[in-house]
Design goal:
The chain is of the alpha/beta class. About 30% of the residues lie in helices and about 25% in strands. It contains seven helices and nine strands. The chain has a five-stranded mixed β-barrel with strand order 5-8-7-6-9. The longest helix is centred in the last third of the chain and has 21 residues.
Length: about 260
């Protein structure tokens, strides 16, 4: 793994320093700042670091003698804010980034409540082009993906691996028609059918950006997504299943984060 000297200054946006992350090399990165709290509550052993803009952070396993400390830092919605967080965390010495989030299923065999662990992503994010041309693939670190798959099997959560679609927008890019005037560009109007026919599993908003940055910056990346909507049937989240699905995704990513720098698998 390529390394550079750690930055000695507090980072501008995430508002963290090398001393604060306590030697952590792995970061769990949810989009939603409130999900940091949920991750910490499930982990049980944590210390809250702070919050600045969309970036809320904490350390889990901070008292453990047997487990490595893991940074948890939210990234906000979309690739642009995620790119800032990843760049700044990498300057502090983080070399592995595991995103945890939610997603809308479009795969033939996906069901609400399932977990998706992407092996690649469609680059409709608009951010990755600042790191590499579009012909450059958005692919995560295979070893980290395998840790996520292992964790999901160990915990007993039904999971899928495959391609996801990373969209720069929540509404038109994901073919949502319940908007102010229900207009979609012709190039977007059949996105669900198009990507489903190409065996994509779900829509989300950050994976492709993360994967391209990771490859370009020589960082490990992977992603765990809980399916909380069936986009083949509805534009809306299934609120009856969302909390349990989110918790399952969090449990998987915490376990995967513990495995990343171990020799267990």
């Amino acid at each position: 793994m390529h390394t550079i000297a750690k930055s000695k200054i507090k980072q501008m946006h995430i508002n963290l320093s090398v001393e604060q992350i306590r030697g952590a090399r792995t970061a769990i990165i949810p989009g939603d700042p409130d999900r940091v709290r949920k991750i910490c509550e499930i982990a049980g052993d944590y210390v809250y670091l702070g919050s600045n803009r969309e970036y809320t952070s904490a350390i889990i396993n901070h008292k453990s003698k047997d487990k490595n400390p893991i940074l948890v830092c939210s990234t906000g919605i979309g690739g642009a804010s995620l790119s800032i967080a990843v760049e700044e965390m990498a300057l502090l010495g983080i070399d592995t980034f595991l995103r945890v989030g939610t997603s809308g299923g479009i795969g033939a065999d996906t069901k609400m409540g399932d977990i998706v662990i992407p092996t690649g992503a469609v680059r409709d994010d608009g951010v990755g082009e600042h790191y590499a041309p579009l012909m450059y693939p958005a692919i995560p670190d295979l070893a980290s993906v395998m840790k996520c798959v292992y964790a999901s099997n160990e915990i007993g959560v039904r999971s899928h691996t495959g391609v996801v679609v990373t969209s720069a927008t929540f509404y038109p890019g994901q073919c949502r028609k319940e908007t102010h005037n229900a207009f979609l560009l012709p190039s977007r109007a059949n996105n669900i059918e198009l990507w489903s026919r190409l065996n994509a599993l779900s829509f989300e908003m950050e994976a492709a950006t993360l994967f391209v940055i990771g490859a370009a910056r020589r960082l490990r990346t992977a992603c765990v997504l809980g399916l909380i909507a069936d986009r083949k049937q509805s534009e809306h989240v299934d609120t009856t299943m969302a909390a349990a699905t989110e918790e399952n995704a969090i449990r998987v990513v915490i376990r995967a984060a513990e495995l990343v720098h171990s020799q267990q698998i």
